[in-house]
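Checklist before submission:
- one chain only
- standard amino acids only
- sequence pasted in full

Submission:
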Amino acid sequence: MSTAKEFIENIYGVETWKILPDLDEEDIWNLIQEYHKANPSILDTIKKEYKRKEAKGWDKIYLFLDLHETVIYPDYNNKEPIKFYEHAKECLQFLSKIKEIELGFYTCSYPNEIEKYKIYFEELDIKIIHINNNEDVSDTRYGYYKDKPYFSLVFENKAGWNSENDWLPVFNWFKEYYSEKI
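Returned file contents:
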């Protein structure tokens, strides 16, 4: 494992040290972690997908969401009240108002649970259009979508989504992007 100084030199260049105060290894690692909390890599993916959408002239962004450990806290006994991660509900309510965004569940929950979540989300003004499929996009010469739905973006804890840290910067990005469009 590299030292914090080597890590920063590799990522940001040697000149970075001229603008940083005298920090010890722990302070540097804490600074790196705080930076990545505020700028998660999912933002790069979101920006890339919006550029692709614009370049191709597409009219939709399909955002699929895992539920447990991504949008809501897990409930292993199916008896706890549904609890959203901080900023998740507000972000999804905001996104539900944007015509070019369609939300979908990407979950292995049982059908009866999915129906319960869909109704609950709708009561909160979160519009879920797709559930584990996307009938808007059919097979093309580039992709087969019968067994895996097409989506532009997926928020999934097992694919790197960090529910504790990613919701706020992602919500802020969407609010800024759409501030003059809605």
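Reviewer check: The mean pLDDT is 87.
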